[in-house]
Amino acid sequence: MVDYALLKKLCLADGISGDEGAVRELIIGEIKGFADWEVDSLGNLLVHKKGRQPAKTRLMLSAHMDEVGMMVTDITQGGFLKFDEVGGIDRRVLIGKAVTIGRNNVHGVIGIKPLHLCKGEESKTIPEYSEMNIDIGADSMEQALSVVSYGDSVRYAGEFLENDRTINAKAIDDRFGCYVMIELIKRRSPRSTRRSRCATSARAR
User: Fold this and answer.
1) Domains in the chain, start-ordered, CATH in brackets?
2) Does residue 70 contact residue 154 with C-beta atoms inside 8 Å?
3) What is the pTM of this model?
4) Is-contact 41 57, C-beta < 8 A?
């Protein structure tokens, strides 16, 4: 039986590459008391699970905590945010996406020049990042800077939607992998007093 409540928490936690702390702390909270763990200098979470019986081999499982996202690179005089990708993103899916920015979880939406203002081939080509803006409702650079900063992370504003057949959520790759490892860590291991290792990496390899 899948614990959908836990999977939902994992998927909705924000953790773009380089800023996975919220996901890591959520995992640690779930596995405390079930295994030994440590965080290395890169932010990877390494978990050691002891078994009850000796085994000849060790087993390592791995999943990544991070998700693709964006980062604020500039702010225009009119208060729009310019951004670039963090991880590989298909630019075609970005237009009209709702996002949250920075520690203040400022809401915004990604937009481009309106269709009726496009000329020639503009309406048929995939816009470059330089042609996209994030609108947070600010009227000026100063107003935008009062709630966001240069370098702030930009995350998809996710929902967790489920029915009898499907789940629709941001970051389900690879938060479902993290979920599976949490469940495995909580189970009693029938073998190996040698340590098995589960690793949740801070960045996708």
Assistant:
1) 4-66+171-201 (3.40.630.10), 69-156 (2.40.30.40)
2) yes
3) 0.82
4) no
197 pLDDT band, cuts 50/70/90, is low
Element (H, E) at 163: none
Query: 43: which DSSP letter?
Result: S
Give residues with Cβ within 8 angstroms of 133, minimum separation 6: 76, 80, 81, 82, 110, 111, 112
Which pLDDT belongs to residue 204? 44
Contact 128, 112 (CB under 8 A): no
